[in-house]
Write a structure and sequence with these properties.
6-stranded parallel beta sheet, two-stranded parallel sheet, 12 helices, globular, transferase, UROD/MetE-like_sf, Met_Synth_C/arc
């Protein structure tokens, strides 16, 4: 790369060095949540600890040089379920089994439909306002939420579909309700000051797996009898949710293959989902897992619509071992064969704690990873 190469200055997400969103929960927060679960402290007392730890985290993120920070998802137990439970008409349900990851089963948790679904008064809006109120001038807040398609997968799983059918006999009506509920939450977040929203999405990550067949026909009524039809459904519910939003609101997405206690759920390259994901989903940028050979190569990125960005998740968040600096730099330039270098950024492949259990690394490891991301990005892009 020529030393005279000029790159566009990033003033909005994604930034050249970036994060996905979740952080390891500090001991104080874990202890408080355990006490709350046991009935030994009140919700107000738990919230006070969450507030305190989120403020500490924000200052650490700022000190690390991050341009867009999150609350670390410190108010959540799960990266996705807590958002679902915040919607009207969706509630907690304890299933017989958790999710099955490679070599590990998660704890149990899912959703049930208790009425018509809507997005008014979602608790994530108040959570965003708190984070926004505690960042320094010039620092942005990125709000992460699970993708609409992720909720559909949960609602229409074999364990939950009967409850959904009580209120939505017609699947198309359920699709419309989910998209509308999301649209409402997103607009409320915008009104609260959010200008960057990230849709975290394991649906595409699971479709690349050889086990994707299990999702076919889970929708019933012949809605998705082939993989292409299922991709079309995911695309529609996501795009409908983010249609007709304010022009200054940035919508990005993170595609994941599972991140629980340093384990993973799926393996496979992006080849089978590049279309319609990279060329038809109406987002600004894709945060993509590329930390292992489970993610395949960079060639599928050639499907990317011109003008979109890719955040290369080349450093793993699943362990604390620091990657070889030159290997990462070389891989960035390899990806630049398919996406202009000016439209690439760098991050870890996922968050550090998609659930409150967290991945198997230390807080020091976590910040060392972020420091390495920043250092490499500054070398590559200046």
């Amino acid at each position: 790369m020529s030393t005279t190469t000029k790159f566009t200055a990033r003033t909005k997400s994604p930034f050249r060095y970036d994060i996905v969103g979740s952080f390891l929960r500090p001991t104080e927060l874990k202890d408080a949540r355990a006490k709350f679960t046991a009935g030994n402290i009140t919700q107000a007392e738990l919230t006070a600890v969450e507030d305190q730890e989120i403020i500490k985290l924000i200052k650490k993120e700022e000190a690390a040089g991050l341009k867009a920070v999150t609350d670390g998802e410190f108010r959540r137990s799960w990266w996705h379920l807590d958002f679902f439970w915040g919607l009207t008409g969706v509630a907690f349900k304890k299933p017989e089994h958790g999710y099955f990851f490679h070599g590990e089963e998660t704890r149990q948790g899912t959703v049930t439909v208790t009425g018509k679904i809507s997005g008014e008064n979602h608790p994530f809006v108040a959570a965003f306002k708190f984070t926004q109120a505690h960042v320094s001038a010039g620092v942005q807040v990125k709000q992460t939420i699970p993708a609409p398609a992720q909720l559909l997968v949960e609602l229409l799983s074999p364990n939950n579909i009967a409850e959904a059918r009580k209120f939505y006999p017609n699947t198309a009506d359920l699709f419309q309700a989910v998209s509308a509920a999301y649209h409402q939450v997103i607009l409320d977040l915008y009104d609260a000051g959010a200008r960057t929203i990230q849709l975290d999405d394991c649906t595409w990550g699971m479709l690349v797996s050889k086990t994707s067949e299990k999702f076919i026909n889970s929708f019933g009524e012949g809605e998705a009898e082939t993989l292409d039809e299922l991709k079309a459904l995911y695309l529609k519910v996501n795009n409908d949710a983010i249609a007709d939003l304010p022009a200054d609101l940035t919508i990005n997405t993170h595609i994941c293959r599972g991140n629980y206690h340093s384990t993973w759920a799926a393996a496979g390259g992006y080849d089978t989902v590049a279309t319609p994901l990279f060329d038809q989903e109406n987002v600004n940028a894709y945060y993509l897992e590329y930390d292992s050979d489970r993610s395949g190569g960079f060639e599928p990125l050639k499907a990317l619509t011109a003008g979109k960005y890719v955040v290369l998740g080349l450093l793993t968040s699943k362990d604390g071992k620091l990657e070889d600096r030159q290997v990462i730099i070389d891989r960035i330039h390899e990806a630049a064969q398919y996406v202009p270098l000016d439209h690439l950024c760098l991050s870890t492949q996922c968050g550090f704690a998609s659930t409150e259990e967290g991945n198997i690394l230390t807080e020091a490891d976590q910040w060392a990873k972020i420091a390495l991301v920043k250092s490499i990005a500054e070398e590559v892009w200046g």
